[in-house]
């Protein structure tokens, strides 16, 4: 059996890749993908501990998170479309007109 | 068992409901809320008559509805709303509701038929005005009376300034508000003084402030704080403070200047203000706490002197006015002067009697003037009228009845009440010289009153028409003629409720109904009877013409003769086909009278003298009070302006901030939690 430390390492690696993407990329699509990576890092943790304790609740929770992520992508794509229509670009740094 | 007294709150609440309805739903209603107002005031009138009959059948009523503060202050006292129904307030309720109902009906003709705009606001104002006055009338303590007194002032402000799009009315409304407020300032201090002295402000009962004051004068000052003064001195001061409000509201010299300007309001409102609500409030207040005033002879003397002086002073100004309503305005000031003279000379019943008759004939005269104004297309200058007698007979005959009453011609209502006032002043003048001065001025005002009244009647209705409109006046409808007829009859016959001279001369016992009414003969509250007031009052009667009967006859003959002299002079000068301005012969005196003795200018001059004080107060207000408030707000403004800059709108920055904050949080937990 693979000890849980490996899963944790995998998930934290995945999380850091996502975080790096969010902090460095300007393209909204990359942004969305990076968010998905971070979300899945969390899912890995849930499944890993569920497996470790032999309790299915964590896996059920992960299934819900995946479904939610799908919905979130739908919304995200919609926002990106709106962004493109309004600014002619998908650069998230440009859309700064709604501050004070 | 349900008695009339259970419905006393409804008398006040009905007009209040009509106010709310007219305000919020008025524009959707037919006639813009007029019917609601008529229904509400008529309902109040019926309930008031029921209450009057209940008092007639031998009961009186005092009830506390709501105690809204308890145990306040070092000397704990309670602040309450309650009703006090005794013969005086029951009578006043009927007067106020009757006039209010008729004014509402008249407004249909004066406002609706004339196509005025903003009618819901008008009817809302009338409803609130009536409700406030009724609340004032039933008040069972001085603080509640003060609150409703202020509401009455507010409503008069709203209604005088009804035509706020023109230039005159808003300024007149402001003036009425400020001048009466100046008087009410003293009233407020007086209310506080009453609480501080007696620990109560109730009007009736053994623990009421007039009763406590009475026992204090008799030597038992227990539980009373007179701040180191002799009780009589202190009660004089407190009485004069409260009198400040009375002088402002009842338009007595020197705070009478607001009333002639208040003519800018719609005419039905003038009728309501002068006959039943605003101006009557002052005199009613003195009558209500008469048991307190009669204890201090100085206050009584001052009331009588102010009243007598105002009666003469205002009457002289009425002689030269050119506008119909202006003449009536000065006659109101003058007539309220008579009532104050009566109160000051111990004629409690005479004052209430004149309040009653004046309510009827002055409401009649104002509504009659309103009818003339409709006919004249809102031209109020009497020199443009003339000859209206045959074109509007109902208005003419009722107006004539009102004028005869105002002039004090036998047997109209005003004769009986004015005669009784002068009689009371005369028989009590022996014990107080101030009263004699008041009596002399009151007597001098009689021919002047008759003169200006009939100058007004002759100029308006007699002679030839002096303008095109006067030749073809606009006809008025039933809703104008109806109220006029009711009041015309009342102005002619109200005298029968109190024919004291007839009783004394013919020896008929028991026809002085008002005397018996106010003496609790049928029902009433202990300590609030005219009998009691006469007992504790400072005056004794002397009869300068020998016997009582001779004095009654001589007094009545003198005042009637003087009134006839004034009437005759007006007849001779103005009852001609083409009258001319005889007042021009007065020369400089006419200018003086026409400009109201320069009282307005004098008050402006006074205001300018005190500009330094008000300037300093303004600086203090702007600098310190507003400064603190502005300082606090500018701190928030400036810091908000700085802090908002962290919101860049760039998503990357937020993400970075989130990450850094999370890291910082983790590090902090790690250190504090001892992970290392």
TrEMBL record, chain A:
Pfam families (alphabetical): Oxidored_q2 (PF00420)
Topology within the bilayer: Multi-pass membrane protein
Subcellular location: Membrane
GO CC terms in record: membrane
Enzyme superclass (EC): oxidoreductase
Protein keywords: Membrane, Oxidoreductase, Transmembrane, Transmembrane helix, Transport
Transmembrane feature ranges: 6-23, 30-54, 60-84
Family: Belongs to the complex I subunit 4L family.
Name assigned to this protein: NADH-quinone oxidoreductase subunit NuoK
Gene symbol of the encoding locus: nuoK
TrEMBL record, chain B:
Record keywords: Membrane, Transmembrane, Transmembrane helix
Cross-referenced Pfam families: Proton_antipo_M, Proton_antipo_N
InterPro entries: NADHpl_OxRdtase_5_subgr (IPR018393), ND/Mrp_TM (IPR001750), NU5C-like (IPR003945), Proton_antipo_N (IPR001516)
Subcellular locations according to the entry: Membrane
GO cellular component, one term: membrane
Span of domain NADH:quinone oxidoreductase/Mrp antiporter transmembrane: 139-426
Membrane-spanning ranges: 6-26, 33-55, 88-110, 122-139, 145-164, 185-206, 226-248, 269-287, 299-320, 327-353, 359-376, 396-416, 436-461, 482-500, 549-571, 654-675
Domain annotation NADH-Ubiquinone oxidoreductase (complex I) chain 5 N-terminal: ranges: 75-123
Topology of this chain in the membrane: Multi-pass membrane protein
Protein name as it appears in the record: NADH-quinone oxidoreductase subunit L
Phylogenetic lineage: Archaea, Methanobacteriati, Methanobacteriota, Stenosarchaea group, Halobacteria
